[in-house]
Hints:
Elements: H1 2-58, H2 61-70
Subunit structure: Part of a complex composed of FtsB, FtsL and FtsQ.
Coiled coil: 27-54
Subcellular location: Cell inner membrane; Cell membrane
Amino acid sequence: MSRFLLAVLLLANVGTAIAVVYERYRHRQLFVELTRLERERDELNIEFGRLQLEQATWAQANRIDQVARQRLGMKFPEAEDIVVVRP
C-alpha cells in the first residue's frame, strides 16, 4: 500500500513539475506578445499624432483660402456683385 501511495505521489509531483514548466513557457510567450503589442501601440500613437498635426495644418483657414484662390480660381465677391435677398 505504501509503494502505491509513493508511486501516486511521485506521479503527482512529476505532473505538477511539468505543469509549472509549461506555464512558465506560456508566460514567456505571452510576455513577448505583450511587449510586441505595446511597441506597436506606441508606434500607432506616434503616427496618430503626426496625422493630427498634418490634419491641423491642412485645415487652417489661410491654407484653405490659398488653395481656393490658386487651384480653383476663387475670390471674394466685389461689393456690386453681392445681392441681398429678403423675404
